[in-house]
Write a structure and sequence with these properties.
Length: about 200
C-alpha cells in the first residue's frame, strides 16, 4: 500500500510539473512588457547551448553542443563545438559558414532565409511578439513562462509549425523548441548566458 501511495504521489507531482496553464490577458501583457523592457537593454549576448534533435525513427535524441553569440541589431553566430566543428554567422544579408576550417560566404537574398534568420534572432533575444507574423499564446509551464508561436507565413509553415520559448526568471530565453511539420522537433537549451560583456 505504501508503494502505491508513493507511485501515485510521484505521478501527480510529475503531472503538476509538466502541466501548462494559460496566462490571463493581464498576466500575458505584464510578462510581455517585462521581456520587451529586458531585451531593450541587450547590446550583446553569449551563451553555451545543448541542442537535441528528436527524430521519429530514432529512440534517442541527437545531441550537439556549442556557443551562441548575438550582437544587436541582427548579428548572430551559431558555433557547434561537439561532436563536430561548424560555425554559421548571420550578419545583415550575408551568411558566413566555417566548416572544419573551410570558409564560404552566401548572399542571403532569399525570402525564406530572411524569415528564418529573423526568427532565429528574435528567438534568441526574446523579441518575438509580432502578432502580424504569429498567432501567440502565453502559458505557465513548470513554474516558468512559456510563449507558443504559430507562424502565419505559409512558406515557413512547411518547415516549422510551432515555436515554444521558455523564459527564465530574468526574462531571458532559456529554451527554444522548434516543432517541424513532420512532428520531429529540436530543443535548444541555453546555459551560462552573459549579457553586455
Amino acid at each position: 500500500m505504501k508503494r502505491i501511495a508513493i507511485v501515485c504521489w510521484l505521478y501527480f507531482n510529475a503531472l503538476y510539473a509538466f502541466a501548462q496553464e494559460p496566462m490571463s490577458s493581464k498576466e500575458a501583457s505584464d510578462f510581455r512588457d517585462k521581456v520587451i523592457s529586458k531585451t531593450a537593454t541587450i547590446q550583446n549576448m553569449q551563451s553555451e547551448f545543448e541542442q537535441r534533435k528528436h527524430l521519429d525513427f530514432l529512440a534517442n535524441a541527437i545531441k550537439t553542443y556549442g556557443k551562441m553569440h548575438y550582437q544587436k541589431p541582427n548579428k548572430l553566430s551559431w558555433e557547434y563545438t561537439k561532436p563536430y566543428q561548424y560555425r554559421i554567422v548571420f550578419a545583415q544579408d550575408k551568411i558566413t559558414i566555417t566548416d572544419n576550417g573551410k570558409v564560404s560566404q552566401v548572399k542571403a537574398d532569399d525570402k525564406v532565409f530572411k524569415k528564418i534568420n529573423n526568427l532565429i534572432v528574435s528567438s534568441v533575444n526574446g523579441n518575438v511578439f509580432d502578432e502580424k507574423e504569429f498567432d501567440i499564446t502565453y502559458w505557465f509551464s513548470a513554474k516558468k513562462a512559456m510563449v507558443k508561436l504559430r507562424t502565419k507565413e505559409k512558406i515557413l509553415q512547411r518547415y516549422i509549425t510551432e515555436i515554444q520559448l521558455t523564459f527564465s526568471e530574468k526574462y531571458l530565453v532559456e529554451k527554444v523548441k522548434l516543432i517541424e511539420s513532420s512532428s520531429d522537433y529540436t530543443e535548444i537549451l541555453f546555459k551560462n548566458t552573459k549579457i553586455n560583456q
